[in-house]
Amino acid sequence: LTDKFNTTFKKLSGRGRITEANVSDAMNEVRKALLEADVNYKVVKQFCKDVKQAAMGAEVINSLKPGQLMVKIVQDELTKLMGPEDSNIFFVSPGPTVILLAGLQGSGKTTTAAKLAYRLKKEGRKPMMVAVDLQRPAAIQQLQTLGEQIEVPVHCDFDTKDAVKVSKSGVKEAKKAGCDTVILDTAGRLHVDDELMTEVSNVAKATSPHQIYLVCDAMIGQDAVNSAKEFNNRLELDGVILTKLDGDARGGAALSVKAVTGKPVKFIGLGEKIDNLEHFHPDRMASRILGMGDVITLVEKAQEQFDEKEAEKMQNKMAKGTFGLDDFLKQMAKIRKMGGLMSMLKLMPGIGNKLEGLNMDDKEFNRIEGIIHSMTPAERSEPDMLNPSRRRRIAAGSGVNVTDVAGLVKQFRQSREMMKMMASGGGGGLGAMKGM
Ligand code: GDP
Ligand code: MG
User: Fold this and answer.
1) Angle at which helices 402-424 and 388-398 pack, to 10 degrees?
2) Structural domain range at position 217
3) Which of 143, 160, 248, 253 is deepest in the core (most CB within 10 A)?
4) Phi, psi of 107 (to 5 degrees)
5) Which residue's CA is the nearest one to ligand 1's atom 19?
6) Are 325 and 375 in contact (CB under 8 A)?
7) What number is the ipTM of this complex?
8) Closest residue (by CA) to atom 9 of ligand 1?
9) Could you give the number of structural domains in the chain?
10) Ligand having the closest approach to the CA of 111
11) Longest dimension (CA), the chain
12) How many angstroms does the Cα of residue 1 sit away from the middle of ligand 1?
């Protein structure tokens, strides 16, 4: 979708002013692009009407080229279409607040249950997850494993196929354990069918959830929106959680789901990892779709992980050249937490589309981390002492070749030299980096 819009608006640039004719031309392209992106046709129709109206009424400001003005209008209308922003969860007191997750099989309910629990836990709440998907024993185990990983209790019962029973005992258990939030991970089917809907609505009736969220796979585009419509007819949905947006280049589901169901997108899933769940910001989504890059998200993500004081400490170390492998490891852990370098870079304007197909996975990071972990603290802070026999020991300890250890040390020395130069060469380079 991004590429399509880019060419459309390029055509508009250079022309003196917005006229009815060139708006019509542009809108034809926008319409085509949206339909190709799998946006619901009714939504497309209304959207184009709104944009056209806004464009005709807009004053052409001198400093803005007509193409730029059109981009702005389209961006504003896209934002309106997906908004308003509504990521708040309604909590009751006294608790527990019951949140039911519904959705098709494979849409990401179980993963999202854990991501949400993790997020709430970080915000100071005490969540409990309940395994209501009793179709396969593996589904319960999946939730248990995730629960262990994030240290959130999971209520389950391997001896029953009765979803209502488990969900009721889950809520009771949560109360007893002093948990303030209960997340019900329900069963899905491949398609919407009566059996599924009946089961989910029975669970809903029995537990009176305070929030019902539909978990929707953005990658299936309009199918996701169609199923959302059906779920919305049968359940009192409070919102939608769109998963796998990291794999959805077209943006069709994100664009139509609010317009079709009338329910806000509460959260978005941007990867398989436990912290890849974020608030949905319609304005940022709109600029992402238009290919401007989601700079604000990028900066926020970086800030969350990079504490100002620590940055200063690091900078001093770098300047003095006392930056050791331990510090190196710490920095790396931060980058990993930020969702990896690649996912960060993908958010940058103009870079995102160039990275398609390029994938730097965690393996390289893991290898480096393994090597550093096999060093003694003294070796980490003073890598110069790594003589051949030490290198052999480290290589054996971390299961790599001696040349890998040598390579890491060399790489580290080079970057330390570079950092020393940058840090002492005036505030410029690192000062700017610190701000990240
Ligand atoms: P459920 O059947 O609805 O419970 O779906 P699961 O939670 O088991 O998820 C199905 C698959 O989708 C798993 O492989 C998840 O790792 C993956 N998944 C879930 N959310 C996301 C996401 O936001 N991004 C990506 N890339 N994968 C996801
Ligand atoms: Mg599941």
Assistant:
1) 110
2) 97-288
3) 253
4) -75, -20
5) 108
6) yes
7) 0.99
8) 108
9) 3
10) 1
11) 77
12) 24
